[in-house]
Amino acid sequence: MRFIVVRRTKPHQYIKPLIIVLSLLTGMILVAILLVLIGAHPVTTLVTIAYSFITPQVVKDMLLLTMLGCALLISFKGAVWNVGAEGQLYVAIIPIVWITLYAVPWSASSPPHQQVLVILASITVAALFGAAWGAIAGALRAYVGIDEVPVTLIMNYVAYYLVNLLILGPFRGRYVYGYIRTDDLPDAYKLSINIVMQRTGNAFLDGFLEFIRAIVYYAYWVLAAILVALLTWVVFNYTSIGLRIKILGSNPEFLKAVGVDARKTILTALALSGSLVGIASAIYYLGDLTRLTYPIQSQTASYGYLAILVAWLSMLELPLIPLSAYVVSSLRNAGRNMQIFGLGGLESTLILLGSILLTYSTLRFLTEYEVRVVK
Amino acid sequence: MSLEQYVANSIIELAPVFATFYLVALGHSLFEKAGLLDLAIDGVFFMGSSIAVRAAVASGSPIVGTVVAAIVTMLLGVALAFLMTYLPISHGAIGLSMMFLGYGIGIIVGYPARLEVGSIAMYAYSEGWAIAIMAISIAIGATVHIILKYTKLGAAIRACGENPHAASSLGVNVLLTRLIAGAVGFAIMGAGSSFFTLAWQKFWDPKSYTLGYGWLAFTVALTSGRHPIVLMPISLVFGGLIFYRVRIGVMYGVEKDVANLVPFIAALAAMLICYATKLKKVLAPPASLGKVYYKEERTV
Amino acid sequence: MSDEYIVLKEISKRFAGGVVALDKVTIDIRMGEVLALLGENGAGKSTLIKILYGVYSADEGSIYINGRRVDVHSPTEAIKYGIVMVSQHPQLIDTLSVVENLALGLRNFNAFTSIRKISSFILEKSREFGVKVDPWEKVWRLTYTQKQLVEILRAMLLKARVILLDEALTYLPLEEKKKFYKFIKEFTAKGGSTVVITHKIPEALDVADRIAVLRRGRLVGIVEGTSARIEDVRRMMFGESAAEITYEKLPASQPGGRVVIETQDLWVTGDFGEDAVRGVDLRVREGEVVGIAGIVGNGQRELTQALMGLRKASRGRILIDGRNVTNRGIHEVREVGVGYIPDSPLALGISIDNSMAENIAALYQRKSALINWSEVYKVASSLIETYRIVIPGADSLIKVLSGGNIMKAVVSKEINYCKKALIAHNPTRALDEVSAAMVRRSIKEKAINNGVAVLLVSEDLDEIYQVSDSIHVMNSGKLYGPFPPDEAERSKVEHLMVI
Q1: How high is the ipTM of this complex?
Q2: Taking CB atoms and an 8 Å limit, are B173 and C154 in contact across chains?
Q3: pLDDT tens digits for C417-431?
Q4: Domain boundaries, given as residue ranges, for chain B
Q5: Chain A CB within 8 Å of residue B99 CB
Q6: Residue C452: which domain range?
Q7: Which residues in A lie closer than 8 A to residue B280 (C-beta atoms)?
Q8: Residue among A4, A10, A257 minimizing CB distance to C330
Q9: B103 touching A, CB under 8 A?
Q10: Three-point CA angle A336, A342, A348, nearest 5°
Q11: B252 CA to chain A: closest CA distance, Å?
């Protein structure tokens, strides 16, 4: 008896959700086992994981990861692997810092419309910077033939150190009490709504109210996430470039045969992907981050990397991106709650991320292939 | 300091740096020579260097650290080679997933050792080992070169990288050959990564997974055309650049982050030079690198 | 002859999309014989041989060697049983030297044996077999003939008892081919067996002791090589219809004066660096259907790809509608309004992971930034209706369709798209007779009603005769003709195809 792998003659109905669920379970079980080995109680661990899915912290991460997931989807659909969202995210913040603190700083005498204009300009310029950063890798892949995976990854490091230099140099804050970071974003430019809610004393009700508070606080993010998702939807359903990217991902030979420049399509896919990362980045900076702290590679929340998981786990289906983002943010949350060595849950997050991705990339072939047992 | 002394000191200083980059790039090259795309390199690098620390602290001997790191990464290499050859799956996705997992495992394995002993310096290789480490690295490299170039096994490994379908038709057991390349390649990577913590840094920090040195080793391999001998000078140049960049930076009054930035810019520039010029043909990757090996394909 | 060395029993094989490649085929291979496997493209010959060599695994059926049931899971195992395959495309590693390639399968040397040591063994053996090739030469430097020679030498070194030649001699020059056949005769005289796959009937009659004919995955029959007549074998290969033209001749079109497709002394290099197209001069006028007949692998693929701008011309010029498009890329050609039905529809003709509508949009809405879906769906539903494509809807992914319907999707969108010219390569492959007839009719109508210049390249001679206003034959990269499509010329055309 032995196994042979053959192409499916017809698609399996439930295979996709099955693979996703299996991958998630594997990741969680692996982390749970690790924690138990280290000495944690298995029930506590499972409760912690479950609890992580319903805490208000999920709201912020989910919204941001939805945007970043959409951004990566744009390139992944074309089988162009932009794993450089992390770098694009920080590079896109550079012009925002400059605009909001140096070019058009807010003062009591500033005209009220300046607020809106600066915010809009920040988002626009961030999109351009993200696009440019992505386009570098795009050009190298399309016209020189260098694999975009190592290039986008290496450019993440370039972005880190570039931003570090700016924090140390021109962007070094004046009001930071000996910290090495940029000055805080002026309140006027912040994209968040702070409301105060009375505690009721009822734990359940308070938890619920905390959710409401989070959603209100991130109301602009909700709007942005919807817009970004909508934009992605329009790109893929109504534009030529979206269609070309999809065909690039499934059959680049055919794309060439209809007379389309495949190289330009690769370049555009990475630029477009980078620009959406830029938009997400602006929302993140204006709504939550509000300053850059040195050294960035130790301070980062690694959203750029988490986004890879979001895009992959969605099976590259846009409607599943928010769901995937929710699952990933909950798992990130679980990682934080299960931290082993006081590293902010970094280690458990990485294990979760890695094992889910690994199971997922291993099983993914089952969507197209089946395993047959032969006597 | 006389010139001889200066050179001798430099060699002793640089030996572990060279060994780290050279062996990691060498193992990675061997893996890729068989047609297996290795995007796990940075995670494996950190994981190996952490396992080495844990094993060295537990046993009190850096040699045990190196051996254990090599064995664990070897098993990983076998697993990856198996998955990538036996199943029609994306080498890239598997590799990147393994990178993240490698970071996580590295932290979990390494951290207790640091909690236990604080400084790992006394468990690391002493300076007296520098020359030996360098010599062993070169010997391993020479052996790999001879096997790859002059033996039947080497021809089989190269055949699997160029065209596994033809190789199979010629009578090569593609799976077995790739398992061997995966095992030996990753074992060498693991040994190399152990020298990072145990001979070069003599220090372990969970945050060093963000250093990205694995990607620099990746670039070293790419720009050397994955050739065991050519890897030597390129590893030395990159290793030297990384080792001396801070010192040079201080000399010229440059920020540390400029010094950190330079190797990555150099890596991108090196890739660009290799791909945009005629070097591209000489350094060409194996023709089937990263391609799914699936036999039962047919057109309408 | 009762000493059946190998028996392939009731072998069946299906490929993705439900394509039946083999349907319960039973064949025996005897010691000391040359067995020819004859059949059209897609008849299943190559699949059968690849199952025996362990490249593919059979869905059903079993293999017996010397009466014992065996499993052949890989070429390595086949080699153990003394079976060696030589393909049409040399299965050698280009970047390795001859001796390295040959060493790979040798089981009498362990993994760490130096190539130098193996080389002396190989040199000695090759002298024994009278083969002269520099063992240290890299394979990519060899000519095609030398590569096939190396493959044969390999079979000898592996002590093959059965050599499978999968179209291995098709590309060889005549002189060389004769040498190979002489060698094969000697080999079988010493007790070895050879299975030769070919399209060419005279060749099979010439060398084979027995001829097995396959059609659409089934064994039609086995005849003795000495007693078989060319006409009988032809009927077995193509079915009863082969003898006479059963297809009604479509009305002739009235070609205009304007030349739409033109090549001048066109030379195109093939995948193996050979001159696949050698000095072709071709003219197709508006409203005219020009057919190119020929057996697969005579440069037709390279010619059509060069015309579309998908392959570089090494010499000569290509003019489409008067515009010089030589080596300007496919974009320029499509711009003129040229439809293209490629020889490899799954690679170049359609993207199966996208929907019918998306495939249409990719071509029809090439130049607009936003896609006008209502227009696309209008085209899609008209194509689905006209060509009776069985598809749940224009939104369905192509990959859920059957092979025939995929082909209809490819063909219909290209025929409908073309404005000035249509280059159609085997447009009815994988289609049933009814659909094929409809496709031929719509190609012809496009020429008559819209003045489109059609270049029809086909391995189906009846199809060529049915549709064409003038006929060429392509053989070994050269173009013969044109001939008028009347019966008198048919034997001449057939002769040109097989010489």
Answers
A1: 0.91
A2: no
A3: 999 999 999 998 777
A4: 3-282
A5: yes
A6: 259-498
A7: 145
A8: A257
A9: yes
A10: 45
A11: 16
Last residue of a domain, one of C176, C207, C242: C242
- Residue C399 to chain B, least CA–CA distance (Å): 12
CA distance A32 to A44: 10
Residue C391: half-sphere exposure toward Cβ, Cα within 13 Å? 30
Tell me which CATH code domain B3-282 carries.
Answer: 1.10.3470
At residue B298 the predicted structure's pLDDT band, cuts being 50, 70 and 90, is low
- Of the three residues C212, C242, C272, the one that is the final residue of a domain is C242
pLDDT band at B297 (very low <50, low <70, confident <90, very high): low
Distance separating alpha carbons of residues A235 and B256, to the nearest angstrom? 42
**Residues C221 and C361 placed together within one structural domain of the fold:** no
d(CA C208, CA A153): 60
- Of C217, C291, C270, C230, nearest to C465 by C-alpha is C291
**Which of A150, A347, A364 shows the shortest C-beta gap to B218?**
A150
Q: Is the pTM of this model over 0.80?
A: yes
Residues of A in contact with C308 (CB under 8 A): 257
Task: Please count the residue pairs, one from chain A and one from chain B, whose beta carbons lie less than 8 angstroms apart.
Answer: 149
* Cα distances (angstroms) measured from residue C395 to each of A73, A254, C141: 21, 18, 49
DSSP single-letter state for residue C467: H
C166 and C222 housed in the same domain = yes
Write the residue in A6, A341, A361 that is nearest to B111 by C-beta: A341
What torsion, rounded to 10 degrees, do the Cα atoms A79, A84, A86, A87 define?
-150
Residues 264-293 of B with CB under 8 A from A: 264-265, 267-268, 271-272, 275-276, 280
Residue B275 distance to chain A (closest CA, Å): 6
> Where residue C275 sits, what CATH number does that domain have?
3.40.50.300
Cα-atom radius of gyration of chain A, to the nearest Å? 22
CB-closest option in B210, B280, B296 to A297: B210
Same domain, C317 and C423: yes
Domain total for chain C?
2
